[in-house]
Amino acid sequence: MISIDYFMSHGSPWTFLGHNRLGDLVNKFNAKLNIYPVNYGEIFPISGGLPVSKRPPQRQKLRLQELTRWSKFLNINLNTQPNFFPSKSLLPSLIIIAAKIEKLDNYFELAFKIMNSLWVENLDIDDEDVLKKILNRMNFDAENIILLAKSEKCSDIMNKYTQLAITKNVFGAPTYIIEDQIYWGQDRLDFVERHLNSMNMD
Question: Which of 7, 9, 168, 200 lies 20 to 30 Å from 180 when distance is taken between CA atoms?
Answer without folding.
Answer: 9
